[in-house]
Amino acid sequence: MKFFVCSRLKKDFISKEIKSHGFKIDRQKPDFVFVYGGDGTILEAERKYPGVLKIPIRTHPSKHAEKFYTPKQLKKIFKSIKTGKYKIKKFEKVECSFKGRKLTGLNEIQVHNAKPYRPLRFSLNVDGKIIPDLIGDGVIISTPYGSTAYYSVIGGKPFSKGLMLGFNNVIERKKPVRIKKYAKLRVIRETGWIISDNNPKMLKIKPNEQVLIKKSKDTARFVMI
Question: Which residues form the catalytic set?
């Protein structure tokens, strides 16, 4: 079995533990990825190694964290992996398609106005229901995993299944909408950015262009011991 560590620490103590337990380090095709850091590091690790089993390590777990382990539990983790006595928890992801390109998010896909001093005017088609003439900062399409993140900041409540679309600072306040199959957003005026999680690679969307958002077939997978 091969491991890699995603971390922003200068001293990588986890790699030493991996080697001391007789495992190999493989940056290219690991079977497991340790993630040492916060939620942002998890999102980055999932983006770089989509679908690979993740093991989040944090010294001080967040109250919103689904499951973080501490450095003191590393010995137990390696023992569980060696014996195969662990479970896998899967999390839904969201994706968008735009002009032949695709972005995937563990937390969310959002469409945001490019210029903060110019609101985006746009329309939505959510499972065939048209929501016309919206004006504001855009929308956030969240997964259950991301429902305690940015989605909650705009008023959304945690949920456990499917996708929810929240309205980001629109002129006429609206409640979040559940997406059963798809959502299409068409820009009417101004320019926006299509963003996935904390991915610095964004897609620019202009007037009369449309982006399709739906549940991804891919999932994020975490080790549970």
Answer: 39
